Amino acid sequence: MRELSGKVAVVTGAASGIGRALAVRFAAEGMSLMLADVDPGGLAETARLAGDTKVLTQIADVSDEESVRHLADRAFGELGAVHLLCNNAGVYQGGHLWTRTAEDFTWLLGVNLWGVLHGVAAFVPRMIEQDTEGHIVNTVSVAGLLAGPRAGGYAVSKYAALAASQALAHDLIATGSKLRVTALCPGAVRTRINRSARVRPFHLAVAPTLDDLDQQGRVDAAVDKGIEPSRVADMVVDAVHEERFLLLTHPEHETDLRRQTEILLAGGLPAL
């Protein structure tokens, strides 16, 4: 997809952070937008920031299959096509792996993994039928490549999202599709992912533990030092143009990944 102008992009998790930055950048490229999130106020603000381009917004919970299918129906029905799908919605929960509850995993996997799977199921078959160039960007995380301490549940969900992205990319090539895939693996970015609890469903809420509170300060500090979401959006546009599968936002993570692979193959575990 060398040319984005006149095409249609769908972005989930568009009310803030990377999702908002993607929407604004795609609008600047001349794309029409279908934006989704569970935060109506933030979603409306993103639509305003997108300027004069055609923008549709919809409240959608990506962990719910019907909600995503309804999003797809509206996107194809009212915009006529979808050329760029960004399964971007994501949530974070820290803490040691043994402290994570069933509710934590239901929430994390529901958004971070099932959000991707539901997006693929609802959009990709119809994108294939269009028989046009197109692209799917799944927001994974560097945690989907480099699992570290104090974020086991999050890493599990993101490793699975990376596996889904790889499998999708292979399937599309094997079947001769014109669609391509990018697995976006951000490091620290100045978003509100450290405040994910604000969108946690009531029925999955649990009381915070000392483990949670200890981790919160670490994540807050990392986010404060992160790069701007607009830089990530610029990288995504380049990756779509270049049909690049793996997109790391921080060059040092390439070195970290090589080092981890070498140590794992030698039978060890890298210190993080």
TrEMBL record:
<dbReference type="Pfam" id="PF00106">
    <property type="entry name" value="adh_short"/>
</dbReference>
<keyword id="KW-0560">Oxidoreductase</keyword>
<protein>
    <submittedName>
        <fullName>SDR family NAD(P)-dependent oxidoreductase</fullName>
    </submittedName>
</protein>
<comment type="similarity">
    <text>Belongs to the short-chain dehydrogenases/reductases (SDR) family.</text>
</comment>
<dbReference type="InterPro" id="IPR002347">
    <property type="entry name" value="SDR_fam"/>
</dbReference>
<dbReference type="InterPro" id="IPR036291">
    <property type="entry name" value="NAD(P)-bd_dom_sf"/>
</dbReference>
